[in-house]
Amino acid sequence: MREASVGFQCPECVAEGRRSVRPARTAFGGGTAGRHGYVTKVLIGINLLVMLLSIAADRGGDAAAGGTGFGGLLGGGTPLTEWGAVLGRAMFPDGTIGGVAEGEWYRLVTAMFLHYGVVHLLLNMWALWVLGRSLEAILGPLRFAALYFIAGFGGNVAIYLFTAPNRMSAGASTAVFGLFAAIFVIMRRLGRDTSAIVPILVINLIFTFVVPNISIAGHLGGLVFGALMALVLAYAPRSHRMLVQASGGALILVALLGLALVRTAALL
Q1: Is residue 19 situated within a structural domain?
Q2: Confidence class for position 172, pLDDT limits 50, 70, 90
Q3: Interatomic CA distance for residues 63 and 81, integer angstroms
Q4: Of residues 221, 223, 234, 229, the one with CA closest to residue 248
Q5: Above 70 in pLDDT, residue 219?
Q6: Rounded to the nearest 10 degrees, what angle do helices 241-267 and 141-162 cross at?
Q7: Could you give the C-alpha distances from 216 to 121, 144, 177, in angstroms and in order?
């Protein structure tokens, strides 16, 4: 028997009562599953695994550290980063031409899981751990995953649009900047104080413009498209929440693909 507010209940009655009670949801559609942070943990795990693979594939010995960026703390390129980083269109040393414009569209996705060195990885994963768990708890796993993907993909499309076609870029920071924007939008939607978020965002933007070898287009693109997706998720009417959120995300994705097609046509 289970102790209740008045008397006792049998376990079967408790189980039946739980099945008849509608699970609580947040204002944005998130449920209890989001509180476990499964998507955040999986994303961090994938990034860690890819970093290990990148180090294992390295030929120059500077995959983990010792590169030219951030005072030598960042790592150098590896065969894996050459394969999956955002690259518009360029000729490789063996004479082949590659890049997104040459049909390697997967680079717009794979780049958000690749990093130049352990320091680069740890900075992004720390931000993902802090921001991701909070957002996933509010939005739920599926909506959070969509936010992360749209922000990362949007940042990579921005790199494709506004960066020299022969320059490679990679990192989860495109998605992380989208999470910064999403935290701000959602807190405003809930009517909460955002004074603690703004200074952190400003500091990260200052680093973006001051520190060499950081993709300005990628960070700003992730910020903008993360904010757009967060607006869709936060302000969808409750009566048609799922439909509006799914449709809004699909429209943003179609717009990004259209921009990538325009850039491809220009490069070819």
Answers
A1: no
A2: very high
A3: 10
A4: 229
A5: yes
A6: 20
A7: 18, 24, 11
Beta strands in the chain (DSSP E): 2-3, 8-9, 90-91, 97-98
Is residue 96, in this structure, part of any structural domain at all?
Answer: yes
The answer to whether residue 119 sits within a structural domain is yes
Q: Which residues are catalytic?
A: 173, 219
Domain membership of residue 244 as a residue range: 25-267
pLDDT at 228: 97
pLDDT at 66 over 60: no
Q: What percent of the chain is helix, strand and coil (3-state, nearest 5)?
A: 65, 5, 30
Residue partners of 141: CB distance under 8 A and separation at least 6: 33, 34, 38, 39
pLDDT at 256 > cutoff 80: yes
The two three-digit tokens of residue 240, written as one number: 């048609």
Domain CATH for 109: 1.20.1540.10
The total number of structural domains that make up the chain: 1
Q: What is the mean pLDDT of the chain?
A: 87
pTM of the predicted model as reported, rounded to 2 decimal places: 0.86
